[in-house]
Amino acid sequence: MKIKWEKRYPRTQWPKKWHGLSMTEMKVYQPYVNRIKPGICGSYATAALIHYFIQKQYNHSLNIADLIKILEPMIEYRYPYKGTLPWDLKAGINQLLPKEIPYQARYHLISNPIVLEQLSNENPLPVIVGTARILGNHYGNHWVLVYAYGYNNEGKLFYRAYDNHGRIGAVIPASQTFAAVWLEAVQHEQK
User: Fold this and answer.
1) Other CB atoms closer than 10 Å to residue 87's CB: what's the count?
2) 137 and 176 in contact (C-beta within 8 Å)?
3) Which residues pair with 182 in a beta bridge?
């Protein structure tokens, strides 16, 4: 169902320059396509984030298919309501990560300040971002893994993402998204 204010932007209106991570780094996620109905996009996006993080921070590769299976009950069925909300992803990530890893998931209900901050860091990490049908996004209510951002000629902010539908170069207007979930280093108190 198309909403009358849904807007798709042709390639000519996309940013020419992207900031953040390379699409090449996301290639490993392209085969992971969410074919379950209703979808478990939160688990796919979270598995990709955790895989990327562990690979970069600890030089260890996890099995992505196993991560999806482990995360599905932690995220998709955590609470007795339909759909997946940002706190579901946060709770699933924090439950999965061992205490020895000094990172924890956080969420914010507006994506753009988080995406810009996280992808502008010296060692950027991708950010899970929610799209919203009510904001006119053609994906509807969906979770993607954003790894780059850019502004088009009119100054409109766009994200480049792994969409867990087989595309690693999906281009999404930031104005059609809502929440962000990301990993942040935590300082442990010294005794």
Assistant:
1) 14
2) yes
3) 106
- pTM score: 0.94
DSSP 8-state secondary structure symbol assigned to residue 30:
T
142: nearest Cα among 163, 160, 166, 118: 163
Residue-by-residue DSSP string for 91-120:
HHHHHHS-TTS-EEEEEES-HHHHHHHHHT
**pLDDT range class, residue 190, cuts 50, 70, 90:** low
Sequence letter at residue 16 = K
Q: Where exactly are the structural domains of the chain? A: 25-185
> CA 164 to CA 94: how far, in whole Å?
22
Q: Which residue has the tokens 């009119």?
A: 154
- Residue 16's SS3 state is coil
Structure confidence by residue, pLDDT tens digits, 158-189: 999 999 999 999 999 999 999 999 999 997 65
CATH topology (fold) of 25-185? Cathepsin B; Chain A (3.90.70)
Cα gap 6→185, rounded to integer Å: 37
